[in-house]
């Protein structure tokens, strides 16, 4: 595997596009599951247009 570095640029002027419905994501909905106190919460991010899941992660914010 080539050891290429990827440049990451912050862009506030363009919106990401949902890979499913191709709508611009000027906002992303999320939903948390789990109790959260010690284990953290599972966060599910989804498209507000088609409600397909864009990704998930863990949040330790109560
Ligand atoms: Zn969508």
Question: Which labels suit this protein?
Answer:
62 residues, 3-stranded antiparallel beta sheet, extended, binds zinc ion
Explain what this protein looks like in three dimensions.
A 3-stranded antiparallel β-sheet has the order 1-2-3, with no helix packed on it. With 62 residues, the protein is mainly beta. 0% of the residues lie in helices and 35% in strands. 0% of the residues are buried. The protein has no helices and 3 strands. It is extended, with a radius of gyration of 15 Å. Zinc ion binds at residues 18, 20-21, 23, 47, 49-50, 52.
What are the SSEs and their pairings?
Layout: E1 29-36, E2 40-46, E3 53-59
Antiparallel strand pairs: 1-2, 2-3
Bound molecules: zinc ion.
Zinc ion binds next to loops.
Q: What are the segments in which pLDDT stays under 50 over at least 5 consecutive residues?
A: none
Largest pleated sheet: 3 strands, antiparallel
In DSSP terms, counting alpha (H) and pi (I) runs of 4 or more, how many helices? 0
**β-strand number:** 3
Would you tell me the overall average pLDDT? Answer: 87
Summarize it.
The chain is built from no helices and 3 strands. The protein has 62 residues and is mainly β. The site of zinc ion (ZN) has 8 residues, from loops.
């Amino acid at each position: 595997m080539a050891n290429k570095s990827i440049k990451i640029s912050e862009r506030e002027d363009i919106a990401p596009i949902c890979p499913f419905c191709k709508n611009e994501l000027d906002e992303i909905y999320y939903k948390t599951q789990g109790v959260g106190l010690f284990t953290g919460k599972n966060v599910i991010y989804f498209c507000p247009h088609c409600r397909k899941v864009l990704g998930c992660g863990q949040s330790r914010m109560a």
